[in-house]
Design a protein that fits this description.
This protein has 101 residues and is mainly α. It contains four helices and no strands. Helix content is 70%, strand content 0%.
């Protein structure tokens, strides 16, 4: 059995734990995907397949960090959920900009 850490956790351990807990959520997975996509976006001339590559890199990171299977059943399941997630972000931004007027 692993040894329990002593509290309070050091800052780097706390950040790693916070990241892993957030990454386990769908919203966390989508945010990491957006980060992966931003990292590779400027590295190539052709944009073909970049979204799929960013998704696969995020799935690999998910498997590596959390030591379990893939987060999504397949690519289509991910992109369907991501489109709903990003539409929700746009609606929230639009509502918040209207409330400041």
């Amino acid at each position: 059995m692993p040894e329990l850490p002593t509290l309070p956790l050091c800052e780097s351990a706390r950040k790693a734990l916070e990241f892993c807990l957030f990454f386990q959520t769908r919203a966390g997975f989508y945010r990491v995907y957006e980060g992966q996509l931003a990292l590779i976006w400027g590295t190539t001339r052709t944009k073909r397949g970049l979204k799929t590559r960013a998704y696969e890199q995020t799935e690999a990171l998910y498997e590596q960090y959390l030591q379990r299977g893939r987060c999504f059943a397949d690519r289509d399941d991910f992109f369907d959920g991501y489109s709903k997630f990003s539409r929700g972000k746009v609606i929230k931004l639009a509502l918040s900009s209207q409330s400041t007027r």
